[in-house]
Every structure is written in structure tokens, then in C-alpha cells.
Amino acid sequence: MHKVTLCLTFFEFLYCHKLYQNRESNSIKNKSYFRCQKRFPEEAYHYNEENISQRFFKIFVKKTYNAFRNELRNTDYTLFKNILLDIWRIIGYNDTNKLALFVSSSLHNTSFYKIFEANEDDMYRSRGLLMIKGVNNYKLLTYLSLLKSNDYVRNPELLSIPDFYSIYDTIEFWEVKLKNNYTFENMMISLHIQSWIDNKSNQDIINWRNMYKKLKCVYRGK
Questions:
Q1: Angle at CA 100, nearest 5°, toward 96 and 106?
Q2: Is residue 154 domain-resident?
Q3: In terms of residue numbers, what domain contains 169?
Q4: What stretch of H or E contains 56?
Q5: Residue 196 lies in a domain
Q6: CATH number of residue 146's parent domain
């Protein structure tokens, strides 16, 4: 489990602000729908099932589960499926590399969707699918939040609840940090993963990278 502890510099904040204002909607075609439904989260969460190919989603879930069947043995399957559904809706399925990179990172950092909050004595401790930590990162999450009533600075525990909104905001945060460069190396650098910086060949980093490579091959049908 790794923690995203990068502090937001002034220049990075300006970049994020510009990117947030001008970024394209490639990652999700239904942003306007979700925004107009923000008063009705249950509708946003279960929106237009016909817009998602159920057949391809089932294949996506099956491939992901089979890739890590042993590790997922004690994971709640309904929770696993719901998290994947939200990731699928937000990222889409056209870019299998991006999908594999995020899914593998979320599985790795949460011990396969079992731990969503670190046991740390810190208000802004590691939480969520990427175990994001630090007040500056929580400020950025609040700034990017789809549901504007979600204030992660005032209510940091919201990030530890794996619902649609926290997952959406986490992916937005991840996209801003990676700046459209979805490689394992850039993710390690952009999120300041300390263990990678200290030793790129430590076993945990190797396992993480292998998870990403495995899912990328699985999603591409190789």
C-alpha cells in the first residue's frame, strides 16, 4: 500500500486550474449528466444502464477477477464489481492501457479493495482508491470535485467511502497529476511514490508493475 503525498506547488496549482478549465471530456462522455444529477446521487450512481454495454462490462469484471482470483478471495464481490463499474463508467474502455494502470493501482493500494483508510494519526491520512494523503492533495480533490458539496478538507472521511463521487474525484485527481501521460514510470514520478524514488527495484514496486502489465495484457486479449 502506497501513499500519495505530493504537495501542490503554486505553479502546479495554476497548471491544474488551466487544465481543469480546458481539459477535454474524453475520459467520460456523461459529465454533464452527472453534474445535472448531483442532487440525486442514487440516480447518478445507477444512470442509464443501456448506455453501458453489459456484455463488455461483464467481460471486464471477469477478466479483472480472474487475473487476481487468489488475492480477491476475501474481497466483497459486490463491492469489487461496483467499484469496477464506476471506474468503467468514468475512464471508459477505449484506452486499455489507462484502464489497466488505474485499476491495478487501485487494487494494489487498497490491498485488493479491502482497506480504504490507513491507520495513521493524521486528519489527512491516506484514504481512497489511491491512498491519497496530505492537506494540499485534499484541497485539490475538493477543487476538482464533481459534487461541489463534497469538501474533503472539512470532511476528509468522504474519501474513504468508495462511492461514485469519491471514485470520480480520485480519477480526476489522478488525471491532473499524470498530465495525460499514462505510463507506470510517469505515475510513480507524478505521485511522488517514495519507495519507487528510493529503490525502483524493490519487490513491492515490482509486484505493482507486474499487476499493471498483467491487466494490460488481459484487457487487450493477449
A1: 145
A2: yes
A3: 10-21+54-219
A4: helix 54-67
A5: yes
A6: 1.10.530.10
* Average pLDDT over every residue of 105-110: 98
Q: What single-letter DSSP state applies at residue 132? A: B
How far apart (Å, rounded) are the C-alpha atoms in residues 160 and 130?
10
In a domain, 4, yes or no: no
Prediction pTM value: 0.80
Please write the tens of the pLDDT for every residue from 131-158: 999 999 999 999 999 988 899 999 999 9
List 4's β-bridge partners, or say none: 132
Number of domains in the chain: 1
- Rounded Cα–Cα distance for residues 194 and 4 (Å): 9
**Counts for the chain of helices (H) and strands (E), in that order:** 11, 0
* Residue 72: inside a domain: yes
Angle formed by the axes of helices 203-219 and 54-67, nearest 10°: 150
What pLDDT score does 222 carry?
Answer: 58
